[in-house]
Design brief:
six-stranded mixed β-barrel; 830 residues; 25 helices; 22 strands; six-stranded mixed barrel; alpha+beta
Length: 830
C-alpha cells in the first residue's frame, strides 16, 4: 500500500506539471464518459429495467389481428367490448384478465373544471398487474358490473387536487357531472397504461361498466379497447394463445352478416415488448452514437498520452539507467491514465446527472417509462467502471512506448531513433485514422437525418396550418343525451364564434389533421375490385360540420363543398381525398361516383361523391397518406345504415377549428370564453394553434436529428483535435528536418503543403474506412429516414469532404509554424 501511495504522489506531481494536458484530457473524458452514462441510463431505464410489476414477464397484452383489409400495424388492432367479455369468461389460462380504454373526462367539484386523462378498466386489471393501492382499495367485479360510480385516483391528483388529504377516501368528485366516490389512491410511481412520453399520464381509473349497447352486436367492430392478463403458473404463452383462439372462433361465428369478410385471430405479446418496441430502434442508435464518441475520446486520450510518453523518453531512459524496474516504468503511465480517467469519469457522472435532470422535458414522446430514466448506484458503478477500463486501455499506449525505449540510443541521440520513431508515427497515425473513420459514420448519419428532416418539412400537408386555432371538446352524455341537444349546442357555438372579431371561418370535425387521431373503417367504392387477398377496402372516415374545409384551408380539387342542401332527407353526399379517388377510380372523374360505408355484404345506403380534396396529413408529415372520405354530420347516421344505431348521437365530441385574421395565440382565450358562455361547466382541451400541432408531430424526428447531429459535432471536434495534435507533434519532432530543407533552399509554401498533405492523407484513409462503416451501419438508420437512401452518395461525399476541409484547417496552424521556423536557431539548438 505504501508503494501505491508513493506512485500516486509521483503521478500527481507529473500531472500537475502539465496543466494544459490535464485540462484537455479531463474535458475529453468528461464529455465521452458523461454522454455514455446519460445514454446508458436511458437504455437501462427503458430497455433493461423490468416493468414495475411483480413477475412482469407473465403479464400479457391481448389484441386482435384482422386480415383481408388494409389495417394499421400489419393488421393488429385492439379488442372489442365483446372480446373483453368473451375472453374474460371463456379462457382458463389467466389468473386475472381485464380490458381497459383510455378516455378523457370533465372533472369538476374540486377546484377549477378541467379535462383529465382517465382509464376505464375491468376489475381484473389491477389484480393482473399485482399492485397494491397506497390508500384504500380497488373497485370490485360487482361494482364494475353494476355500474357503481367509484373511482381510484393517482398520487398526482391526490397531491394536487386534495393536497394529500389523509381522509380523501369517501370524498366525491364530479366526472362528466356525475358524482363518483373515491375508494383508492395509487402509489406515486404507478403508471398504467404505460404511455410513451408521459409520467403519471392517467389521473384516475373508473370501472369499465359496459352498457347494453356496448356489447350488442352493432358494437362488434369497435376495436378501441385493450386487454391485459397475467398467465397462470405453469401455463406457457403457446397454451394461452390456443385458449384464446378457441374463444375467438366462437366470437367470429356470432358476428353479424355485415362482418362476414372479417378474418380475426388473437395476438398475445408480453407487456414489456408492447411498451418498449417503439423506442428500441432510437435507443440502439443513440447508444451506438455515444459509443462512437467514447471511442474517439479514448483514441484522443491514448494519442495525447502517447505523445506525452514519447516526449518523456529521456526521463524514462535516465530512470532505467539508474536501475528502475521495467514493471515500474510500465505501471507509471497506466496509473496516470487511471487518475485522469477516474477524475474525468466523476466529472462526466455529474454532467450526466445534470443533463438528465434538465433534459427530461426534451426527450421524445416515443420514449416510454420516462420516470424510470435517471441515475442510480448501478449506473454510477457503470460510469466508474467505464472510467477505469478507459484509463487502463488508454494507458497501454504510453506503457508500450516506455517499453520500447533504448537507454543508450535515447541518451546519446536526443530521444530519436529511426526505428522507434517510425513505429510511433504509424501508431499515432492509426489512432487518427480510426478517429476519422468513426467520426465519418456519425457525420454521415447526421447528414442523412438532416436531409430526411428537410424532406419531411417539404411535404404538402394538404391544408394550411397558419392562422388556425383548434381545441378538443366532449359533451357529457347526461346533459347532451339526444341529437337535438347536441345539434343545438354545436349550432350556437358556430354562430357565436363567427361573430367574434378576427374570426374568418369555423368548423367542427371528428378527427384533427396532424394529431395522429385516425382509424381505418371499411368502405365500398362502386366499381372497385379489391386486390387478391383483401376482401374489402378501408380508409379514414371524417365527419365534419360547418365551414371545416375553409377553416383548415383544404383545397378543393374538383366538385363542390358540402352545403345546406345536404340534410338527412336529401341525397347522401360524400367527399373523398385524392388518394381514394385515384385508387378506387383510376383515371376517372370521381364526381358522381358512389361510395358506401361498411363491407360488401352490408346493405348500407350509397352516398354520391360531390367533391375531391387534397390528401390531408393525419399525423407526422413523414407518414404515408391514407384513403380518406368525409361525411356531413347531418347525414352520417343515415350513411351508417345497419351499422348505425337509433340511439347513436353524433357531434358530441371532436374538435373545433377556427381560422382567424389575427395570430392564433391572440385568440386562445376567445375560444374557451365562448364555450363557457354557452355551458359554464364545459372545459376545452388542447387549445392550440395548428402550427403547434404540426410542430409536435415533427418533434420525435427533430429530436433524433438534433441529438445525432450533436454527437456528430462532438465526434468531429474530437477527431479534428486528434488530427491537430498528431500533426503538431509530427512538426515539432521534425524541426531539424524542416530547418535543413529551408537552409537548402526549399520554399516555405512547399513546407506548408507537405505538412498539410500529410494530414490530408490520414483523413483520406480514414474516410475510405468510414464509408465502409457507414454502409454497414445503414441498416440501423434506415427506419429513421424519410425520402432519403440510407447510403445517399451526396451525403456521404459531403461528409467526407467536410472532414477533409476540417482536417486541412487543423493542419494549417502546425504547417504555418513549420514554415515560419528560424532555421539558424533550430540548427544551433540541435
Amino acid at each position: 500500500m505504501a508503494y501505491l501511495f508513493r506512485d500516486l504522489k509521483i503521478a500527481v506531481r507529473h500531472l500537475i506539471r502539465s496543466p494544459g494536458f490535464v485540462t484537455a484530457t479531463l474535458l475529453i473524458l468528461a464529455l465521452g464518459i458523461g454522454a455514455t452514462t446519460a445514454i446508458f441510463s436511458m437504455v437501462e431505464g427503458v430497455l433493461l429495467r423490468p416493468l414495475p410489476f411483480p413477475q412482469s414477464d407473465q403479464i400479457m397484452v391481448i389484441s386482435d389481428t384482422l386480415s383481408g383489409v388494409d389495417m394499421p400495424a400489419k393488421g393488429s388492432v385492439g379488442v372489442t367490448p365483446i372480446d373483453i367479455r368473451n375472453y374474460t369468461h371463456g379462457t382458463h389460462s389467466f389468473t386475472n384478465l381485464g380490458g381497459y380504454q383510455r378516455i378523457e373526462l370533465d372533472l369538476s367539484g374540486i377546484g377549477d373544471p378541467a379535462k383529465v386523462s382517465a382509464t376505464r378498466m375491468s376489475a381484473g386489471v389491477f389484480p393482473a398487474l399485482a399492485v397494491e393501492p397506497l390508500r384504500g382499495r380497488f373497485f370490485t367485479r360487482q361494482e364494475d358490473e353494476q355500474n357503481e360510480p367509484v373511482v381510484v385516483i393517482s398520487f398526482t391528483m391526490w397531491e394536487n387536487r386534495f393536497h394529500g388529504d389523509p381522509n380523501v377516501l369517501g370524498k366525491k368528485l364530479l366526472l362528466n357531472r356525475r358524482p363518483y366516490v373515491i375508494v383508492g389512491v395509487m402509489p406515486q410511481r404507478f403508471e398504467f397504461p404505460l404511455l410513451p412520453g408521459h409520467i403519471n399520464h392517467t389521473e384516475l381509473w373508473i370501472p369499465m361498466s359496459f352498457a347494453p349497447q356496448d356489447t350488442s352486436i352493432t358494437a362488434a367492430s369497435d376495436w378501441s379497447y385493450d386487454m391485459v392478463g397475467r398467465l397462470k403458473p405453469g401455463i406457457t404463452a403457446a397454451q394461452a394463445l390456443n385458449d384464446l383462439d378457441g374463444v375467438a372462433a366462437e366470437t367470429v361465428r356470432a358476428y353479424p352478416a355485415s362482418m362476414a369478410e372479417f378474418k380475426m385471430h388473437p395476438l398475445m405479446r408480453p407487456l414489456y415488448e408492447e411498451t418498449v418496441e417503439q423506442a428500441r430502434p432510437l435507443i440502439r442508435m443513440l447508444f451506438l452514437a455515444v459509443v462512437v464518441v467514447l471511442l474517439i475520446a479514448c483514441a484522443n486520450l491514448a494519442g495525447l498520452m502517447f505523445v506525452r510518453a514519447i516526449s518523456g523518453r529521456r526521463d524514462v531512459a535516465v530512470r532505467l539507467a539508474l536501475g528502475a524496474r521495467a514493471a515500474t516504468i510500465v505501471w507509471q503511465p497506466i496509473l496516470e491514465s487511471l487518475l485522469l480517467s477516474v477524475t474525468g469519469g466523476v466529472i462526466g457522472l455529474i454532467l450526466a446527472a445534470i443533463s438528465l435532470r434538465l433534459g427530461a422535458s426534451l426527450l421524445p414522446e416515443t420514449l416510454p417509462r420516462l420516470n424510470a430514466i435517471g441515475l442510480n448506484w448501478q449506473l454510477a458503478g457503470f460510469a466508474i467502471g467505464l472510467s477505469v477500463l478507459t484509463g487502463i486501455v488508454c494507458g497501454l499506449a504510453p506503457a508500450f512506448a516506455a517499453t520500447r525505449t533504448t537507454v543508450n540510443a535515447t541518451l546519446k541521440g536526443g530521444a530519436r531513433t529511426a526505428t522507434s520513431g517510425a513505429v510511433h508515427a504509424r501508431l499515432r497515425s492509426a489512432l487518427v485514422i480510426a478517429e476519422v473513420a468513426v467520426a465519418l459514420i456519425l457525420l454521415a448519419t447526421s447528414g442523412l437525418l438532416l436531409k430526411s428532416f428537410e424532406r419531411m418539412r417539404q411535404v404538402d400537408l394538404g391544408f394550411r396550418p397558419d392562422h388556425t386555432l383548434a381545441a378538443a371538446y366532449a359533451l357529457p352524455r347526461d346533459q347532451y343525451g339526444t341529437q337535438a341537444a347536441v345539434d343545438a349546442f354545436n349550432l350556437e357555438l358556430e354562430n357565436q364564434l363567427r361573430q367574434q372579431p378576427g374570426v374568418k371561418s369555423v368548423g367542427l370535425t371528428s378527427k384533427l389533421p396532424g394529431s395522429g387521431a385516425a382509424g381505418a373503417v371499411p368502405f365500398v367504392a362502386e366499381g372497385y375490385v379489391a386486390p387478391k387477398g383483401s376482401s374489402f377496402d378501408a380508409g379514414t372516415m371524417i365527419i365534419v360540420e360547418g365551414n371545416y374545409f375553409e377553416a383548415l384551408g383544404i383545397p378543393l380539387i374538383r366538385g363542390r363543398w358540402f352545403d345546406q342542401a345536404d340534410t338527412p332527407t336529401g341525397q347522401l353526399a360524400v367527399m373523398v381525398n385524392r388518394r381514394l379517388a385515384e385508387q378506387s377510380w383510376p383515371g376517372q372523374d370521381p364526381i358522381g361516383k358512389r361510395l358506401r360505408f361498411g363491407t360488401p355484404s352490408l346493405k348500407s345506403p350509397w352516398g354520391t361523391v360531390v367533391g375531391e380534396v387534397a390528401d390531408v396529413a393525419e399525423g407526422s408529415p413523414d407518414l404515408p397518406s391514407k384513403q380518406q372520405f368525409y361525411l356531413p354530420m347531418k347525414q352520417a347516421n343515415e350513411m351508417a345504415g345497419e351499422m348505425g344505431s337509433s340511439g347513436n348521437v353524433l357531434g358530441n365530441r371532436g374538435y373545433i377549428v377556427v381560422r382567424t385574421a389575427l395570430p392564433p395565440e391572440r385568440m386562445e382565450n376567445v375560444l374557451p370564453a365562448t364555450v363557457r358562455s354557452i355551458d359554464p361547466q364545459l372545459p376545452l382541451n388542447h387549445v392550440q394553434s395548428m402550427e403547434y400541432t404540426i410542430t409536435n408531430s415533427e418533434a420525435p424526428r427533430r429530436f433524433n436529428t438534433v441529438l445525432i447531429c450533436s454527437f456528430a459535432a462532438m465526434a468531429v471536434l474530437l477527431a479534428v483535435l486528434g488530427i491537430y495534435s498528431v500533426i503538431a507533434f509530427s512538426v515539432a519532432s521534425r524541426v531539424q528536418e524542416m530547418s535543413i530543407r529551408i537552409a537548402l533552399g526549399s520554399q516555405r509554401h512547399r513546407i506548408v503543403r507537405m505538412v498539410m498533405v500529410s494530414g490530408a492523407k490520414l483523413v483520406v484513409v480514414g474516410c475510405a474506412i468510414g464509408l465502409g462503416g457507414a454502409f454497414a451501419a445503414s441498416r440501423l438508420v434506415r427506419s429513421f429516414l424519410f425520402g432519403v437512401s440510407a447510403f445517399d452518395p451526396l451525403v456521404m461525399a459531403g461528409a467526407a469532404f467536410l472532414l477533409l476541409l476540417l482536417a486541412l484547417a487543423a493542419s494549417l496552424v502546425p504547417a504555418w509554424r513549420a514554415a515560419s521556423v528560424d532555421f539558424m536557431q533550430a540548427l544551433r539548438s540541435e
